[in-house]
Amino acid sequence: MNNQPPQRPRSPPRGGQAPPMMPPSPKVAKMGGAPPAVMRPAAAPPIVPPIAAPRPPQPPAPKPAAPPAAKPPPSPQIDPAAEARARAEAQKAAAAKARAAAEAKARKEAEAIAKAEEDARKKRAAALAEAEAAAKKKLQEEAAALAKAHAEAAAKEKAAAEKRKAEEEKARKKAEEEARKRAAAIAKAEAEAKAAAEARAAEEAKAKAQAKGLVAAVAIKQAKDQEAAVAEASKKAEAAAAAEAEAQVAAEAASREAAAARKRADSEAGTLAELKRKASALEKDAKAAGATIPDLDKPEPKKPAAKKGKKSSGGSKKRKSEAISEEEPAAEAAGGDDAMDMTAVNKLTADKLKKELKKRKLDDKGKKAELKARLVEALGL
What we know:
Layout: H1 26-30, H2 80-234, H3 237-288, H4 314-339, H5 342-347, H6 350-359, H7 368-379
């Protein structure tokens, strides 16, 4: 495609017609390019001015000092027709020469145009190839950048997924560990509650046994007193006096034993109160933990009573009477704690309060008011 703008035709020379249009060169026709809309006209032949007749040579000016020279012969006369013919032939030759020069110039210009068009085509092809290469390179760079961005996004997403998975695994392990700890705490609380219930049952059974023993001791003592009274009534007065003296000594010993038994009973009562307090605290903890506390206060099934053996001999009766005599101070001690009222507690000093609390295996540290409150709570006053 010819991108050159159309050229204006030259005006015809004065006094003549416009020169004929030059056909396109073979190279331009071979390239398939159409001639421009207005072809450049062939160069007009130059206007050759008419050739003037040659002037006859002028004789040199005569020298004044020189002698007169002889006159030259006269110049021959020029034929006007021959001069016109010569002038026409010269004009024709000049026109042919100008036409040949114009044609050569036109050919050169056509070749230059074809070469320029070829160079322009090559430049356009090179520019197009360069543009295509640049576009291809740009597309490749954009594709590489897009692939890189996709790879980075995929790597980031993978890293985020791995991080999220690690956090979920960590949270799951933490939840499992907390669940194990809660289960262990619940099991421990249940075990402690069970142990506390067993300890409470054991202490209550022990307290019941002690109470039964005390009641039995009192009953045995009453029977023994009754038996002694019947025996003493049948003896003589001298035996009665001796028995009275012995009874007085026994009473003093019984008083001492009663004091010791009272101390032991106070200690046992303090221990029982402390166990009850601990059992109550454990029961609260177990209930707070949701543990099931069995009812240990239900009566156990009665065991078949063992068959009573034959009556023992007199020696066994004597041993029984001695055992009864040893259990009497314990029976008296049972009423010792009941005898301690608020008046007796108020009269106790701080040291005595500490001793009483220590006997009951309670905390003996603190001020007097705290010690007194603990002892009153232990005694149930």
